[in-house]
């Protein structure tokens, strides 16, 4: 159903009544051909075949046959005149009166020229057929208007449907996130107490065991690390479910990126990785929560580092662009943050790593989705990044190809938007 | 040797109290009193007048903040410093200090290591 509606949208020339003949070119050809037929037929009959009939001696000469022939042919070709008129009336209503009047006058002229006078009923006949054409045009116009109305309401319905769908998706997503948030923060709080006991207990053992063998000491160390890890997950979860107010300030994106890269730079895994920065000469400024944005960049950078276990390159590109077409968060829908033509501050973080398989791409921003081995990721990093960027009224997208690398694109509101 | 500081620990988690008490006392610098209920904790505070109170916030019956309010309202206990132990705030919010002061109240996020709690107590008691 959707597809057919979209097709309708692509063809805005709704004044063309769609009937048996759909092609605009064919309609035009048929019309021109019939007009041509009328005009040349009339011309031929009047000027070439029957030049000036001698009306006075009509009945006393053998020319009566000629006249009869002329009349019968004239009836035939004047009827022909109806064809382009009616077709125009149906297809191109607006110009119908001009065409009808032109053809009617042409008809009167031909008759007058051929006979030297006007046969009774000629003008009436022309008047009737102009009137008839006008009526047909009116009917056709009504029909087209109705059709247009239907199309319009279809369009309205369609856009309302799309808007509703977006709103519903957003509601569902928000509801889902809220439910996850409530559940996880409850769970997290409950878990922290026993974690505290474990930590204290292990410390107690550490202090009081008089004869600690190596294995025992190692076990204590491992338990402490596990507690630390569990706590880290909880901190992530709590952060995820929390709706703190963001502290917006003017942030120089390149400066923030530099500071963040310096933070990550101590990472041992960075030995074989080159970080290339492509910054513009002019500073790019955003209204953002510095800490939150930094967290997003840290998440993306550490993902890139993880993807580059055998070394490679990370490219950090920063630039302004203008929203040129409707897309993710771009458009007039509810929930869109950028309008067409809006300036967008873009941060791209690109790696030459192993990439993300296509079938996993739709899931990567879902909470708790991770492809890292157990214990390495909480599966909250990217969803947290998504959440943070969304709260900045921006968007985050990913492009990836297996064995070639991944590119995360953050679209942010520039400061002066 | 200097006199041991007397700490009152009010927390409904008995196991945590046991380990925390033991670990703190093992340092040789503290005497720890324990109460697993808010109301009993108040009574103990009034009777024993400890140097510092470690107070859990989420407790059945009388919650930690009610206990604190009560203690602050009574002249006998109003001057005893309180450190809230809670699982509500995260370490990341508290920052590197592991203890945060907000509106005159000190918070520590669970799970806490003995080392962190000893440092915090010493900072508050200025010893």
Structural account:
The complex is a heterodimer of chains A (417) and B (127). With 417 residues, chain A is α+β, with helices and mostly antiparallel strands. Helix content of chain A is 57%, strand content 12%. Chain A is built from nine helices and seven strands. In chain A, helix 3 runs parallel beside helix 5 (122-208), helix 4 (96-115) packs antiparallel against helix 5 (122-208) and helix 5 packs antiparallel against helix 6. The longest helix of chain A has 87 residues, at 122-208. Chain A starts with a helix and ends in a 5-residue tail after the last strand. Chain B is of the alpha/beta class and 127 residues long. Chain B has helices at 14-26, 38-48, 64-73, 91-94, 114-125, and strands at residues 5-10, 30-35, 52-56, 82-86, 100-102, 105-109. In chain B, strands 2-1-3-4-6-5 form a six-stranded mixed β-sheet, sandwiched between helices. In chain B, strand 5 and strand 6 form a beta hairpin. The longest helix of chain B has 13 residues, at 14-26. The interface between A and B is medium-sized, with 21 and 20 residues.
Key phrases:
heterodimer, A: 417 residues, alpha+beta, 5-stranded mixed sheet, two-stranded antiparallel sheet, 12% strand, rod-shaped, B: 127 residues, alpha/beta, 6-stranded mixed sheet, 5 helices, 6 strands, 39% helix, 24% strand
Strand order in the sheet with the most strands of chain B? 2-1-3-4-6-5
| Average predicted confidence as pLDDT of chain B | 84
Radius of gyration of chain A: 40 Å
Biggest sheet strand order of chain A reads 2-4-5-7-6
Largest interface: A-B, 21 and 20 residues
Beginning-to-end CA distance, first to last residue of chain A: 38 Å
Beta-strand percent range of chain A: 5-15%
* Helical stretch tally of chain A: 9
Overall strand count of chain B: 6
Q: How many DSSP helices of chain B?
A: 5
Q: Determine the fraction of residues in helical runs of chain A and give it as a percent range.
A: 55-70%
Rg over CA atoms of chain B:
13 Å
């Amino acid at each position: 159903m959707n597809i057919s509606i979209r097709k309708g949208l692509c063809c805005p020339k709704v004044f063309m009544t769609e009937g048996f003949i759909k092609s605009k070119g064919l309609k035009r050809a048929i019309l021109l051909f019939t007009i041509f037929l009328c005009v040349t037929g009339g011309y031929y009959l009047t000027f070439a075949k029957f030049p000036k009939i001698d009306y006075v001696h009509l009945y006393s000469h053998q020319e009566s046959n000629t006249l009869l022939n002329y009349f019968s042919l004239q009836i035939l070709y004047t009827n022909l005149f109806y064809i382009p008129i009616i077709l125009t009336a149906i297809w191109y209503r607006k110009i119908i009166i001009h065409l009808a009047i032109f053809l009617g006058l042409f008809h009167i002229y031909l008759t007058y020229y051929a006979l030297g006078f006007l046969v009774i009923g000629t003008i009436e006949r022309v008047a009737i057929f102009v009137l008839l054409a006008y009526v047909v045009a009116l009917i056709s116009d009504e029909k087209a208007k109705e059709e247009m109305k239907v199309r319009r309401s279809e369009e309205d319905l369609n856009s309302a449907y799309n808007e509703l769908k977006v709103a519903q998706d957003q509601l569902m997503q928000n509801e889902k996130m809220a439910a996850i948030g409530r559940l996880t923060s409850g769970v997290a709080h409950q878990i922290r107490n026993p974690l505290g006991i474990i930590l204290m207990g292990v410390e107690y053992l550490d202090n009081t065991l008089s004869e600690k063998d190596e294995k025992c000491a190692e076990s204590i160390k491992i338990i402490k690390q596990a507690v630390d890890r569990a706590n880290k997950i909880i901190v992530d979860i709590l952060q995820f479910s929390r709706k703190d107010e963001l502290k917006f300030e003017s942030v120089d994106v390149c400066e923030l990126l530099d500071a963040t890269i310096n933070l990550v730079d101590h990472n041992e895994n960075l030995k074989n990785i080159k970080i290339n920065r492509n910054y513009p000469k002019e500073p790019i400024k955003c209204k953002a929560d510095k800490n939150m944005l930094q967290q997003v960049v840290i998440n993306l950078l550490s993902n890139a580092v993880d993807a580059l276990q055998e070394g490679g390159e990370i490219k950090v590109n920063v630039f302004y662009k203008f929203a040129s077409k409707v897309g993710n968060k771009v458009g007039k829908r509810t929930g869109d943050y950028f309008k067409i033509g809006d300036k967008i501050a873009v941060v791209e973080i690109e790696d030459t790593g192993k990439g993300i398989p296509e079938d996993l791409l739709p899931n990567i921003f879902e909470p708790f989705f991770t492809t890292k081995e157990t214990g390495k990721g909480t599966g909250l990093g990217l969803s947290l990044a998504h959440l943070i960027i969304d709260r900045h009224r921006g968007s985050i997208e990913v492009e990836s190809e297996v064995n070639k690398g991944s590119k995360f694109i953050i679209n942010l509101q520039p400061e002066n938007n | 040797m200097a006199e041991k500081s007397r700490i009152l620990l009010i927390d409904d988690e008995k196991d945590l109290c046991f380990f925390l008490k033991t670990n703190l006392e093992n340092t040789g610098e503290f005497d720890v009193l324990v109460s697993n209920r808010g109301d009993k904790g108040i009574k103990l505070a009034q009777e024993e007048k400890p140097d510092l109170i470690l107070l859990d916030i989420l407790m059945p019956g009388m919650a930690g903040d009610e206990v604190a309010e009560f203690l602050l309202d009574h002249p006998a206990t109003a001057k005893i410093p309180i450190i809230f132990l809670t699982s509500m705030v995260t370490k990341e919010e508290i920052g590197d200090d592991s203890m945060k002061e907000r509106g005159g109240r000190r918070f520590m996020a669970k799970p806490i290591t003995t080392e962190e709690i000893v440092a915090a107590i010493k900072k508050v008691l200025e010893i």
